[in-house]
Amino acid sequence: MRKAMFVGAIGCGKTTLIQRLHHEKISYDKTQAVEFRGEIIDTPGEFVEHRYLYPSLMTMSTGAKLIVAIQSGLDQRAVFPPAFTTMFPVQTIGVISKIDVATPQQVDYAREQLKNAGVQQIYLLSAVTGEGVAEFEQELNRLTVKDPAKL
After folding, report:
1. Considering the entire predicted model, what is its pTM?
2. Are 77 and 112 in contact (CB under 8 A)?
3. CA-to-CA separations, 19 to 1, 58, 149, in angstroms, rounded
4. Which one of 29, 63, 67, 136 is separated from 2 by 20 to 30 angstroms, measured CA to CA?
């Protein structure tokens, strides 16, 4: 896969999902700076939570083929503003994380937040239990391969 940039609030599960995708041991690791993890760009949650850092997100997105907006099923804040995805020059897909501990109402709220941000394609998953990760990984690979003829 080519570069996918993961964006979301602090603690939404970006790094945990990357650990799951790379078959690493799951451990909490606060991302302090942009990290290049294989073909994934892991961004600090502050880049989304503080609008004055949006230019950093836009700059980092030039190295990405896909943006993955992650909203925790437990986070009942409006993390992404309306039309958030329009600032990126590439496709954005969404992930609702922590579905193993979120209620159906919390998941519905997260879905609405991602839709309001401009995301149309949304995956529900738990990086801890692995639920939904295989389907997400297949789509991630499909959307980021360098040569679609090699699928």
Report:
1. 0.91
2. no
3. 16, 24, 28
4. 29
Q: Are 84 and 21 in contact (CB under 8 A)?
A: no
CATH architecture under which domain 4-150 falls? 3-Layer(aba) Sandwich (3.40)
pLDDT tier at 146, thresholds 50, 70, 90: low
Tens of pLDDT, residues 56-92:
999 989 889 999 999 999 999 999 999 999 999 999 9
Distance CA 67, CA 6 (A): 6
Alpha helices in 8-129 (DSSP H): 14-21, 46-49, 54-60, 104-116
Please answer whether residues 102 and 131 qualify as being in contact, where contact means their C-beta atoms are separated by less than 8 angstroms: no
φ, ψ dihedrals at 60, nearest 5°: -65, -30
Task: Give percent above pLDDT 70 in the chain.
Answer: 93
Which residue from 58, 64, 46, 51 is spatially nearest to 88, judged by alpha carbons? 58
